[in-house]
What we know:
Layout: E1 4-10, H1 22-25, H2 30-43, E2 46-52, H3 56-69, E3 72-76, H4 85-92, E4 98-102, E5 124-127, H5 132-148
Amino acid sequence: MAGAIVYLLNGPNLNLLGTREPEVYGKQTLADIEAAAKKHGEKIGLSLDFRQSNHEGTLVDWVQEAGKKAAGLIINPGAYTHTSIALHDALKAVACPKIELHLSNVHAREAFRRVSFVSPAVDAVICGLGADGYTLALDAVRRLIEKRA
Ligand code: CA2
């Protein structure tokens, strides 16, 4: 377990965190969230590979890469959650524990955000806890990795 690699992937527009809509997404920037996640990862024995892209194909490539290299995968797919069959298919092909993560409670927002193409392809979903969701997702993925070992 010590030093197990976990990919933490972030989708479109999450690079804008902290600049707008703080009432929905919080005040922290993605760099703040990355620093806290890496610190927590170290504490619980996980080595984090934290990335963000605005491009669906890049995210698909990274999910495939995680399938080869990672012990666990956490993904906040951003708006691709609600549209991407390509991400669904890529995630289905990954055997390690996978968690879908959202800052906001997508079920309490617009109807289109209640639809997720990602949820059927992952082990668990965390949403509505803001930036804390990232550290909680790390704890959760660690448990799932342990259980499978
Ligand atoms: O709640 C989440 O984490 C989301 O994945 C965030 C996505 C949204 O499309 C999903 O429905 C739920 C959007 C992230 C955009 O973040 C921004 C932050 C600041 C300014 C503009 C966009």
